[in-house]
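Progress report, Aim 2. The chain analyzed during this reporting quarter is listed below.
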Amino acid sequence: MDMNCTMPMPMNCSMGMGPMKMQMYFYFGVHDVTILFEGWDVNSVAAMVGSFFAVFVLALLYEGLKVFREVIHRRKAKFTAKRSISTVHYQKISATADMTNTSHYGTTEKAFNSFPVAVSLGVHTAQTFLHMLQVTLSYFLMLIAMTYNVWLFIAIILGAGAGYFVFARFRGPGTRSQQDENEHCH
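Predicted structure tokens for the chain:
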């Protein structure tokens, strides 16, 4: 890398890639704002308005994704609890059947025990991909906030607030989830 500046590095120094321009304070600009990717440049009020709504939707979806993952986790836990109760009940019936010398349902037991494992693996795989998507969205939102553009920062805050307003009611009464304790970037 060709560095044409001295340390400490000013934010407009050239590193062989053209001049870098990065604000290190909050500003209200609507021109020369790059969001996440080189192709997402804001150079007009209309582009900023469109970007504002896109960022708003990203933050809203992030909040929805958090709640969706929690709902899936809760349903899986409920399914697992029901399965545990059924297994205990099945084992009692099976033990009684063995004591009375009647036939034992060994084949049924294998099928009964293998089905939830497949379901559990599928749910866990889905949760893994949803977690990866959540982490990606959270880092995107963090990087957008780090543009220090006030309009984009407001879009994140309003989108997160709207997402919480819309989706938090699906969490269930009085639940504080692990997702709350393991928040990403906020």
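The CA atoms of residues 33 and 160 lie 22 Å apart. The chain is about 65% helix and 0% strand. These observations will guide the mutagenesis work planned for the next reporting period.
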